[in-house]
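Researcher: Here's a chain I'd like modeled. Treat it as a single chain, no partners, no ligands.
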Amino acid sequence: MVKIGDTAPAFTLKNTGKSDVTLADYIGQTVLLAFYPGAFTGVCDKEMCAFQDNLAKLNDSNTTVFGISVDSPWANAEFARKYNLEFDLLSDLDREVVSSYDAAFVGLGGIDGYVCANRVVIVIDKAGIVQHRWVAENPGVEPDYDAVVAFAASL
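Model: Modeled as a single isolated chain. Structure tokens:
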């Protein structure tokens, strides 16, 4: 399991424009990874909108936000458009990043064998070290957004 104090696992994922986004390109910035089960699924909508609502505070503290799901770039693009999200949503189609961050959830919606992201928030410091990890007890639970934003801003 990725723990506080570990080096954040490297990744390159596609954003909604189908361009590569590589975590290593963000060394020197705080990075907030918000894993979410799926676009257009109620609680995920609320979560991504909450990070959007706090984006100015996060940007002011040199924090980059990425939403990560197993959804396609096209689904994520429509999701971002619908909610006017101004941060990248990344597609982990092969579920490698979800696995490397111990953020997998199996059986969402009662579908046996379906693997998606659980609701997990990771904050990585400017040196690429995991400084915060929050994992939902189940995908219906939301993080304490104010606490996450304050923590990221403090780094």
